[in-house]
Automatic annotation (TrEMBL):
Residues 150-169 are annotated as: Disordered. Pfam families: Hydrolase_2. Signal peptide: none annotated. Residues 47-144 form the Cell wall hydrolase SleB domain. This is Cell wall hydrolase. InterPro entries: Cell_wall_hydrolase_SleB (IPR011105), SleB_dom1 (IPR042047). The keyword Cell membrane does not apply. PROSITE patterns: PROKAR_LIPOPROTEIN. Gene3D superfamilies: Cell wall hydrolase SleB, domain 1. GO terms for molecular function: hydrolase activity. Keywords: Hydrolase. The keyword Hydrolase applies.
Length: 169
């Protein structure tokens, strides 16, 4: 017997059910989950300072007109954060530390040395650009602002510094 419903209708119905139920690839992340994912995949969970610095960069981008105005919009931008940041599985053993740092950043904490930085890369990477003004190295990353070359006063990553941020009690 020939079906009255083409296969594409069934696919659309299944997609709608998945989207409404919040499962699979249609699942929407909360702002907290998106911040946790950025911190987890970008800071290597190596230090609270590194996680808060990554979160501070995300929030600087949210505040900028050049990027989406939500945490999830910023974190899920193509080629901006770690590949698979929104889809890869996270090891939940580090969840309490990540949750605390992400919650704190969403409540207004910023790394005190991050300034207006909207960019970072692995601390060991050396880029050949002349517009990178480095403000901080923490958690395995070097954080920087893009400036006109004549306004760059710190053209190489600073020595790593840790232990500046503290969990709020």
């Amino acid at each position: 017997m020939k079906s009255r419903h083409p296969a594409w209708r069934l696919i659309l119905v299944a997609a709608a059910v998945a989207a409404v139920s919040g499962c699979g690839m249609f699942r929407r992340h909360s702002e907290l989950e998106c911040m946790e994912r950025a911190m987890y995949f970008e800071s290597n969970r190596s230090s609270r300072d590194g996680m808060v610095a990554v979160g501070s960069v995300v929030m600087n981008r949210v505040a900028s007109r050049q990027y989406p105005n939500t945490v999830c919009g910023v974190v899920s931008q193509k080629n901006q954060f770690a590949a698979g940041v929104m889809t890869r599985r996270m090891d939940r053993r580090s969840a309490p530390l990540i949750r605390e740092a992400a919650t704190s950043v969403l409540r207004g904490e910023r790394h005190p040395m991050i300034g207006n930085a909207q960019f970072f890369h692995a601390a060991g990477y050396r880029a050949g650009y002349d517009n990178m003004h480095y403000v901080l190295t923490a958690g395995g990353n070097a954080f920087y602002e893009r400036r006109r070359p004549e306004h760059v006063t710190q053209s190489v990553p600073r020595p790593a510094i840790e232990g500046i941020t503290r969990p709020r009690s």
